Amino acid sequence: MTARAVLGAVLILLAPALAAGQLPGAGGAKAKDEKAQPLTVDSDRMERFGKENLVIFSGNVVARRDNSVQYADRIEVYLDEKGDRVLRTVSTGSVKIITKDCRTGTAQRAEYFDIEQRVTLIGNARVWEEDNVVSGDTITLFISQDRSIVQGGKQERVKAVFYSRDEDKRDGQAALRRPAEPCRN
Q: How does pLDDT run across 80-94, given as a tens digit for each residue?
């Protein structure tokens, strides 16, 4: 098992950036500059189970790459038999993902499946960019298809708020009606 395979999996969970093609790291779609971008993972504990091809980061896990960051209480990384490829990752406990382009996602649990290129945010899932927000019990992102499904739960229905973009007549660039805070990861 290579450290790059294990650590590279952690930020794969940054689904909004992957869907936008901004983050390298998914097993099927590697960017040219992937090696140039360092990955830093901090946690209170890391445990490797060689026979099970499993690595677990636990306790205040913070994973950073190229000004994107993920926070979770625990991240499980499941590897293939050789330990060269991440098959699946599971993040639990106060999951929060902030991408370098200021997209944010939160949930109680996040699951990533490499072969299917699918990320599922489970439990009070919420994804937003600036003032636009979508929330539901479960949000599933099909990365390679640029498609998502948001499902409500027993307690709440799906909710979405989208703000119109106004054309700035001075320079021709689109601007939100209400400016958002700058992204600082």
A: 998 888 888 899 999
- Rounded Cα gap, residues 126 and 140, in angstroms: 11
3-state SS track over 130-152: CCEEEEEEEEEEEHHHCEEEEEC
C-alpha 3/C-alpha 84 separation (Å) is: 9
CATH class of the domain at 3-160: mainly beta
Which residue(s) pair with 141 in the sheet?
A: 119, 148
Report the distance separating Cα 163 and Cα 29, nearest Å.
Answer: 32
17-59 pLDDT, tens per residue? Answer: 333 333 333 344 444 444 456 657 799 999 999 999 999 999 9
CA distance 10 to 14: 8
Q: Is residue 154 within 8 Å of residue 176, measured between CB atoms?
A: no
* Residue 103, CA distances (Å) to 14, 62, 77, 91 in order: 9, 17, 23, 18
Q: Where are the domains of the chain?
A: 3-160
Q: Which pTM value belongs to this model? A: 0.71
Nearest to 27 by CA among 111, 117, 107: 117
